[in-house]
């Protein structure tokens, strides 16, 4: 079984006010474990003062692992749409 590298863009939830992207970034960093190697988490400008969180993670290429990680990230209040920016096998 190989490894897969994923880069995600976590957009802010438009229905939630006063979202702190640094709080979301901290939450995602804490998801790192033996399954998910969260290698980088960055807060980047989006538009009109809004910011998004970019996440780079490496995990085993197993069934359902990417869906599970996306579910873990979306569980945090303030996370709206999760977009896959890149995906590749290692």
Kindly report the average pLDDT value: 95
**N-to-C span:** 10 Å
Give a short account of the largest sheet.
4 strands, antiparallel
The proportion of residues forming helix, as a percent range, comes to: 10-25%
Residue stretches low in confidence (pLDDT < 50, at least 5 long) are none
Strands, total number: 4
Keywords:
alpha+beta; 4 strands; Alpha-Beta Plaits
Description of the molecule:
The model has no long low-confidence stretch (mean pLDDT 95). This protein is of the alpha+beta class and 90 residues long. 14% of the residues are buried. The chain has helices at 21-29, 65-74; strands spanning 3-12, 36-45, 51-60, 79-89. It is elongated, with a radius of gyration of 13 Å. A four-stranded antiparallel β-sheet has the order 2-3-1-4, covered by helices on one side. It has one domain: Alpha-Beta Plaits (2-Layer Sandwich). It is 21% helix and 46% strand. The protein contains two helices and four strands. The longest helix is centred in the last third of the chain and has 10 residues, at 65-74. It starts with a strand and ends with a strand.
């Amino acid at each position: 079984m190989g490894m897969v590298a994923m880069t995600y863009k976590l957009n802010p939830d438009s229905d939630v006010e006063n979202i702190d992207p640094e709080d979301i970034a901290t939450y995602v960093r804490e998801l790192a474990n033996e399954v998910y190697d969260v290698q980088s988490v960055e807060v980047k400008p989006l538009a009109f003062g809004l910011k998004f969180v970019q996440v780079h993670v490496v995990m085993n290429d197993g069934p359902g692992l990417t869906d599970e990680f996306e579910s873990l990230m979306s569980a945090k209040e303030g996370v709206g749409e999760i977009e896959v920016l890149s995906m590749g096998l290692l």
